[in-house]
Write a structure and sequence with these properties.
- The chain is of the alpha/beta class.
- The chain has helices at 8-29, 44-53, 67-79, 116-128, 148-166, 186-189, 201-208, and strands spanning 32-37, 57-59, 85-90, 102-104, 112-113, 132-136, 172-177, 180-185.
- It folds into two domains: 8-144 and 193-208, Rossmann fold (3-Layer(aba) Sandwich); 148-189, no CATH class.
- The protein contains seven helices and eight strands.
Length: 215
């Protein structure tokens, strides 16, 4: 089990299944499909679902991308006879010379991100000359039937929270620190955002498999 909040495993499962289902269409119609998933400032869902489903490019907020390099990877696939590709894009991914795609911001609220997948698709179509379609999974990842891992994690967190109250813990949150659920001070828990480390084994595995990050 990894360090994660409950809901993450389910979101990755749903995203992975969605990408899996697109493979039939992209292979039979020789298309490029851009799949946009949640991931405002951290690319955990895009990275994990993209690698699990066998995507050919993954764009995440932690790695500014150059679409010329993604297009080149698609062209090289076509030269080898693979006339299709799937690109997974986190909503907060941004080009090396661009900014995040913000569709709105209200006072006192976080900025609303969206449209990244459409922007990537339009530019890839222009660069590759191929038909490029977009699928936005969005809030589908936040609902549905939770995975058994998430159900178990929810039970562990809930019971640990009650035990913590009984034991007098204050100003803390329950956190998974395998193999235990521990109590972590809220101050340290929210002091920084947990982004994808660029040297994590999942990124290294993806690069070994030839998956492009556009860098």
């Amino acid at each position: 089990m990894i360090d994660a909040t409950f809901g993450f495993d389910t979101a990755v499962d749903v995203a992975t299944e969605g990408i899996d289902r697109l493979f039939t269409t992209v292979t039979s119609h020789s298309r490029v499909f851009v799949v946009e998933v949640m991931g405002r400032y951290a690319g955990w869902i895009a990275l994990n679902s993209g690698v699990a489903a066998g995507a050919h490019a993954i764009l995440i907020p932690e790695i500014p991308y150059d679409l010329a390099k993604v297009a080149d990877a698609i062209d090289k696939r076509e030269a080898r006879g693979a006339r299709f590709a799937i690109v997974v894009v986190a909503e907060g991914a941004q080009a090396t010379d661009g900014e995040r795609s913000v569709i709105g911001k209200s006072v006192g609220q976080a900025e609303r991100l969206g449209g990244t997948g459409a922007e990537v698709a339009a530019e890839l179509a222009e660069r590759t000359g191929k038909e490029v379609r977009t699928m936005v999974l969005g809030h589908l990842l936040r609902g549905g039937t939770p995975s058994s891992l998430d159900r178990l994690l929810g039970v562990r967190f809930g019971t640990a929270a009650v035990r913590g109250i009984e034991e007098g813990h204050r100003g803390v949150m329950v956190a998974l620190q395998p193999p235990h659920v521990s109590y972590v001070p809220l101050v340290s828990a929210i002091s920084k955002m947990r982004v994808v480390p660029l040297d994590c084994d999942t990124i290294l595995a993806a690069r070994d498999l030839g998956i492009s990050f556009g860098d």
